[in-house]
Hints:
CATH class of the domain at 99-195: Mainly Beta
GO cellular component, one term: plasma membrane
CATH architecture of the domain at 99-195: Sandwich
Helix content: 10-25%
Strand order of the largest sheet: 8-10-15-14-13
Region (Disordered): 198-235
Radius of gyration: 45 Å
Main location: membrane
Protein name: Ig-like domain-containing protein
Number of helices: 2
Keywords: Membrane, Transmembrane, Transmembrane helix
Amino acid sequence: GGSITIPCRYDLKYKNNVKYLCKVDHLQICSPDVQTDHFKSIDKASVSQDINKQTFTVTMTDLGTKDSGRYWCAVEINGGSDVMIERFQLSVTAGTPELYVDQQEVTGVEGGSVIVKCYYRNTGNRKWCKIRDSVQCVWENSGTTEGKSVTLQQTTDATRGNVLTVTMSGLKMDSTGWYRCGVGDLMMPVHITVRQQTTTQSTSTMTTTQSPTTEQPSFSPTAEPVQTEGGKEKDTMSSIDLKVLLIPLGMLVVVISGVLVTWKMWRKHSKYSFYNNYNQYFPRRQLY
């Protein structure tokens, strides 16, 4: 009654070819159940394709025990033999599966981390792999895949049994893609989508991870430097206005001073000339 999504990765040279999923019978004959030239559900299977990531994905729903078996992902070759690009064994049980995850679709934020929990009952080496042109795996404890830190932690749950907790840190946009959680011979595909961090998310992250400091208010939208800068501009404008008024006033004072000095000199000269002329035409008489 459950469902599963299976990614099948192909070579770039097959991007325009028809791809399909088929179940192999006891005669090793594989007849297509669903293919990419029919993008719709057929019975209990549906298919989609992402050419940019060179992956076509098959989702099978309402699974029953009769759906258990071997499957192939293949590419149709016109005028030649088809090419198998992926093969896997699907095991559908009535009880608890030997390996499963809560969800096959996980979303994270750029720069953040995601946690995937894989529950299992079988034994074997534990691993986390990125599905690309060449599969890159981290085994048992910790390591990196394409520069991203990956930690594997083994714990036990009282009701679910063994738990493999996978933590991927330092996510980047190119971390988006298909991964596999594996224990022994069993593997479960998990798709991780990384989204860009929004302004709200970024502010929230800074608030929760930084300790309060006296400099913290300077990061707020109403920080003091904005107001201080405006005050400087206002003071500068006032200073310029005052200079504009003082310059002509000073020049006026200089002109008035010059006029007064000139007037005084002219008056003195006129008085002196008057007395000279008066004495010349009206000589003083001497009294006896």
